[in-house]
Amino acid sequence: MIYGDRVRLRHVEREDLPKFVEWLNDPEIYQGLSMHTPLSMAEEENWFETMLKSPKDERPLCIEAKVDDGWQLIGNSGFFDLDWRNRSAELGIFIGDKNFWNQGYGTEVIRLLLCHGFATLLLHRVYLRVFEDYPRAIRSYEKAGFVHEGRQRQGEYHNGEFHDVLFMSVLRPEWVE
Ligand SMILES: CC(C)(COP(=O)(O)OP(=O)(O)OC[C@H]1O[C@@H](n2cnc3c(N)ncnc32)[C@H](O)[C@@H]1OP(=O)(O)O)[C@@H](O)C(=O)NCCC(=O)NCCS
């Protein structure tokens, strides 16, 4: 477990998959993740089996929030496309339970992951991509310390329009715990 003040990150269990399928079929969530077709339980089970065979440091983590009587699953996050030679990785996150949006949970999870990435995995660079029409996501990445480094013009199509894709990153020397 990786513990923060109000959240913790733990391994994904098979029992989590129905919640992921529910959330990842919600347009408000899947569009931000560049998905555009419905997701089935069978596909998610396939993803889970493949994930179990990947190196431990490269597996996504469940986000749980502290609630009155314990811990509640609210989303998923982690590093992918880890490039060990260049000590670089892409960060991905979604909070599927919308009751937890806009209360600083996303920012806290990202800060926790940056700490894990820089202090434990000894990464040098963490980057992400985000669509220009996702101000909530952009703001939470900025709050967690990501800086804007570039823009891919009209790189993503959704809601009947092309949108720019923003590239953001944090380098280890810039990281403030
Ligand atoms: C993106 C996501 C991880 C952010 O997590 P979160 O817990 O909701 O975000 P936080 O509360 O930490 O920060 C959100 C910030 O955006 C601001 N915000 C929200 N809506 C906004 C809007 N329309 N315009 C500008 N700022 C906005 C909030 O006010 C807050 O900033 P503040 O603390 O300065 O007031 C989460 O909302 C999510 O998973 N969404 C669905 C999936 C998704 O879009 N993923 C992003 C893929 S790139």
How would you explain this protein's 3D organization?
- There is one protein chain.
- By secondary structure, the protein is α+β, with helices and mostly antiparallel strands.
- The chain has 5 helices and 8 strands; from the N terminus they run ββαααβββαβαββ.
- It has helices spanning 17-24, 27-30, 41-53, 105-120, 135-143; strands spanning 2-3, 7-11, 61-67, 70-83, 88-95, 125-131, 147-158, 161-171.
- The protein has an 8-stranded mixed beta sheet, covered by helices on one side.
- A hairpin with a 2-residue loop joins strand 3 and strand 4.
- The longest helix has 16 residues, at 105-120.
- The protein is globular and about 40 Å long.
- The model has no long low-confidence stretch (mean pLDDT 96).
- The site of coenzyme A has 20 residues, from strand 5, helix 4 and helix 5.
